[in-house]
Amino acid sequence: MKTRSMKAAATLAGAMVSMALVATGCSKGADTPADKPAVTEVTFWSWLRASQEVTDAFNKTHTDVQVKFEQIPGGAEGYGKLTNAVKAGNAPDVATVEYAMLPDMLAQGNLADISGDITDLVKSKYPAPIQELVTLGGKTWTVPLDAGAMVMFYRKDLFEQHKIAVPKTWDEFKAAAEAVKKADPKARITDWNQTDSANFVSLNWQAGAKWFGIQGDSWKVTLDSPESQKVAGYWQDLITKDLVTNVPAEEVQKRKAANQVWTQLGGAWAAGGLKAGLPDQAGKWASAPLPSWDAAPASAMVGGSSFGVSKTSKKKEAALKFITWMTTTPEGIQARLASGASSTLPAIPELADVAAKNFDTKFFGGQDIYAVAKTALPTIKTGWVWGPGMRGVFDGIGEQFKLVQTGKQQLPAVYGPVQTKTIADLKGRGINAS
Amino acid sequence: MPPTRSGLARRQYGVAALFTAPFFLLFFTFTLAPIGYGGWLSLHREQTSGLGLGGEPEQVFVGLDNFTRALTDGQFLGSFVTVGVYCLVYIPVMIGIALVLALLLDSAYARAKRAFQLALYLPNIVPGLIAAMIWTYLYTPGLSPIIDALEQVGIPFNLGSDAGAVGAVANLTTWMHTGYNVIIFFAALQAVPREVIEASTVDGAGQIRIAWSVKAPMIRGAVVLAVLFTVIGAMQLFTEPFIVRDAATTIDQAWTPSLYIYQLTKAYDMGGAAAASLILTVVLAVASFLVTRFSKKGATL
After folding, report:
1. Is the dihedral of CA A423, A424, A427, A428 positive or negative?
2. pTM assigned to the model
3. How far apart are CA A304 and CA B225, in angstroms?
4. What integer pLDDT is reported at residue B6 of this predicted model?
5. B47 reaches A (C-beta below 8 A)
6. Is A251–B143 a contact, with Cβ atoms under 8 angstroms apart?
7. What are the angstrom distances between the C-alpha of B1 and each of B4, B6, B13, B215?
8. Contacts with A197 from chain B: Cβ below 8 Å
């Protein structure tokens, strides 16, 4: 009995040792640079459309750097994942960071300082408002990809069919909302989307609100301002009068498919999603500037991404090579647009033309939606600063929206609680704020 | 030479240690050490300074501050009220249904017992996440055939109310866990001596009387165990409300203690999350103690 079990154990141990040997043998074979020049492999995390295509195109044309792309979720989950990975020391070399989240990521110490050559590059290629978004505390942190200028997508066919003018101001938008409801009692001009608070934040930006500011060594948090109140009051009125849909996100998609949602506000990049989500409505959509508060056109940025190098990366140079390729070269932009899934508006003006040429506009009836987005760019209200704690702000506003949906809360009251909580959170993290 | 008494004992200790070592090793590595680390975290807080640009956060000792913050946070305390209400609704209903179904399965008239056992157990195999997504669909007005049908006959179901949200989650968990408990109760019923049942039959008791007065009391131990596990599981409620909240607007970020803790980790507040977790652990320990204590009297197993 004893000898038999001993024998069995010995066999098992032998098997394990040989398996281990096989395993090490394999990995050795793959790593040894016998006949190839040294290749630096960098990892890249993103949730942006066509990231895989961009990576493939880069790998095909480069021999010294090879990129391994890993899809991660967007939003709060993705940033949490990055933060934890940096702490654990297994973060990717290249990270995707939206402009709104950059201060948050810096407060977590997630990104490496890439000033130096990159500062010059950013200064020479990008418009000043975009430069400001990635330069904080006198250092450059990320390289910008796109400018998410906010525009209004609308159902051209339905507006024409019912002879409703495309609204240019918010007053006209309200009038159009009434006309839409009259034309089709089941339809509304847009959905009041409670789950995505990013659009709402940008509508405040467009109205001239400034939620974060720096005063000396401290952040000034002002969510609740007269400008914000104007925006909240306007939309609350539309909700109360039942001129916009106020339903869960799942239902909104169904209503869109049933031709019951006639406009969608969003960043230039949202065109790609619209196209993918509603293939049956090809040729029926068009793009127009965002309605403004007075006659002067005004827009805001919604979303917009940049790429940085994680603090723990040991391959900064190779990572930057990939980052600059995908953000500042026509090849990089072409690769992103070629798949047809992305409608990104590159932040570098010349590259926006490259993008326009590569984007299939059939969904928009051949309209040059890039021209609309490009005219919106210079109208983006200046002076807006993203502050740390935006993840909490987006979440907090989203929670408040749920109360608005059930009628327990009115929109003008959503700012107060979020502002109080944001300041408390920042202070709790040792950041000066008031 | 025959082995001395103490020598034997020593050798037995050696063997015992060898057999128990793996348990203690795993217990220490995966239970005690993480709890210890949680304890350390709960006494610290991540801090940066100034504008917080580019600075690496440091862990600063804050004493019991994280605990006082949690215990004075209305959201955290409110989350215990929510699970309390949820337990009051869910546990009696779920255990009651499971018990009745198990007794029916065990009755002399039951046919196709195996098929019914399998059918009842099926929902338990569905992963909680998937189940929650299915039910979220069934709860969404405009998408759900059930909600639409209910509205047609004039019974509007409002997920937007607090009661509606508790009901929705309790309904979902009942659907998931009843079958599991039926199996447990049914197994316990199988162990009830047949002669006791025969004796009751001879004494003139009907099926219902036997079920209620003979069988049910005899599996009291199994029921207590099921209640205990259910209480512990219910207080850690997370997945179901996390998914259903897409449709149920009153389920906020701190609806249950676990959701509250999750929300803190999302705000990078690991210290606060650790403190809240430890408080939840203590509450769970007390709750388990109370359940076993109150049900000890007359327990048969």
Report:
1. negative
2. 0.79
3. 54
4. 63
5. yes
6. yes
7. 9, 14, 21, 57
8. none
